[in-house]
Description:
Elements: H1 28-50, H2 55-72, H3 76-101, H4 135-151, H5 163-168
Amino acid sequence: MARKRKRRNAGTPTPRRRRLTKAPPPDLNTTLASVIGGGGGALLGGVAANRGWDPTMLALAMTVGGGVGAYTLDGNLRVAANGLAAAGAGQLALSLLAKSADPKDDASGASKPAKKNSVSAQPQPANAGGLPPGSIESAFERARHRLAVEDDDRDRYIDVIDVDLAEAA
């Protein structure tokens, strides 16, 4: 009769290391097509926005156009369309953030006209009220002059105070 082998409980087995397979790098033509699609789209969108077109609508058109191109085209054109869609999505996000952060824009999206009869190009502080130009600077200059005059009179700081006379009064 054959003898049954008993297994030894010698500890946990050593874990096997997984071999991490690395994907092959993309072809240089694929990378260039992606860069050209994204950079060219961003450049054209920036030029058109500089010419007066609405940046939000341009970015939306780039995103949708690039997405449709990436879905329908083949090869490097598909990769370039992916780059265009990515650049459009980035510009769309930036334009929406810029609109929400700009307090001068109202609900219609048109910016308010600037005041034509402002005294200076720099904005005045909120607490300046209707002060004439230069009045704040002259007030600081007067205060600086008064402090310089009072510093010459240092005798008042070295007067000895007699405590007995102060209690008697």
